[in-house]
Amino acid sequence: MFPWLWLYAPQLYFPWSGSVAQQIEPNMDWFFDSINADAGDGKIEKKAFDEASYGTQLGLLTKVLVELADKQAPLSPKAAESLDRLKDIQLKIDNIKKDQASSLAHSIEEQVRQFQKSNPVEFARLGDRLRGILGEGQ
Q1: I need a surface site. Which of 26, 89, 116, 130 has the fewest CB within 10 A?
Q2: Taking a C-beta distance cutoff of 8 angstroms, is the pair 32, 45 a contact?
Q3: Exposure letters 25-45 (e unless 16+ CB within 10 A, then b)
Q4: Domain segments of the chain as ranges
Q5: What does the alpha-carbon distance between residue 27 and residue 114 come to, in Å, rounded to a whole number?
Q6: CA 28, CA 23: separation in Å to the nearest integer?
């Protein structure tokens, strides 16, 4: 053929054709790699996050701050307004947690009832295992 045409050999990919390699493993390093180098070390931030998430850290700080602020002398109007807003946010978050726990408990109860109907033998075994787990908590 024409050996000089190998320089011009475009690869055309039409829709739904061509290379479709895809990485499906979740990679969350983007979150910690985006920390400014002057702000801290991304590896340390990741280890700190693995120890306690930002939400856990903020929750602990909020509890301490609200308790200390309640013991203080009267606050300025802006500080009192901010404290009221913080208390309101804390209450809403607590309600979200309670609603989630209640929903999860209801879902588990429904699944157990369905499992009892569909597989009584395995349900009895599960009951024995759960009694062991529940007994440990008491």
Answers
A1: 26
A2: yes
A3: eeeeeeebeeeeeeeeebeeb
A4: 29-72, 76-138
A5: 36
A6: 13
Amino acid at 59: G
Cα separation, 98 vs 116, whole angstroms: 27
Find out whether 51 and 44 touch, Cβ atoms under 8 Å. no
- Region class of 40: left (phi > 0), else alpha (psi between -120 and 50), else beta: left
Extract the tokens encoding 63: 């509890």
pTM of the model: 0.58
Question: How is 69-91 classified by DSSP, letter by letter?
Answer: HHHSSPPPHHHHHHHHHHHHHHH
2-44 pLDDT per residue, tens: 556 666 666 667 777 666 667 777 766 666 555 565 667 777 8
